[in-house]
Amino acid sequence: xxxxxxxxxxxxxxxxxxxxxxxxxxxxxxxxxxxxxxxxxxxxxxxxxxxxxxxxxxxxxxxxxxxxxxxxxxxxxxxxxxxxxxxxxxxxxxxxxxxxxxxxxxxxxxxxxxxxxxxxxxxxxxxxxxxxxxxxxxxxxxxxxxxxxxxxxxxxxxxxxxxxxxxxxxxxxxxxxxxxxxxxxxxxxxxxxxxxxxxxxxxxxxxxxxxxxxxxxxxxxxxxxxxxxxxxxxxxxxxxxxxxxxxxxxxx
Length: 252
Known about the structure:
- Helices cover 48% and strands 10% of the residues.
- By secondary structure, it is α/β, with parallel strands linked by helices.
- Helix 4 (96-103) runs parallel beside helix 5, helix 7 crosses helix 8 (192-201) and helix 7 crosses helix 9.
- The chain starts with a helix and ends with a helix.
């Protein structure tokens, strides 16, 4: 075919190329765990005050109880830094010897997720050892000790006597601040009116805020769009549908 013929019958115009969709990866998020990074609010005021009151505690141990993502670990990190505490988790308490080996000669210790402890005697020995050394122990848990249902009578009595402070559910102001902070931790932002739109319609919990931010991050990355009203509305609908589907599976 000649060049003239090509000119007479030009090829059909191609549709504009679509930008490639990016994979939504859960990349590490750098979060600050200092006192300046903590979002103080009425729901956590008593817990924050207790942490900052150390070492003038009424007893050797403090238990912070609150729902998932409510800032208990953040408060624990603040205290551990101030008290030079050994950091443990309930899952680390596999035996009395392993717990005391991790404690070493220290007089202060933080035990996150204490309600997930593996061996009751390990926690009992940890409580007793810290008290004997005139030190302090900070524990965090999602539920208060009665829900742990410990079998050891000595541990039950020690837990019942703990100074215990709860973290209440967040109010609208804290939910707004959580969304703004957690988005900023991921290098994202949303206009105040978008944040207000989300807060009015989201699951009203600390964990709900975390899930929403993760979903917004993934959606923004996949679509290449900023977090505006349309994206916010779509993500909320997606989360609601996922929750409804999970509920249906549980019922079935």
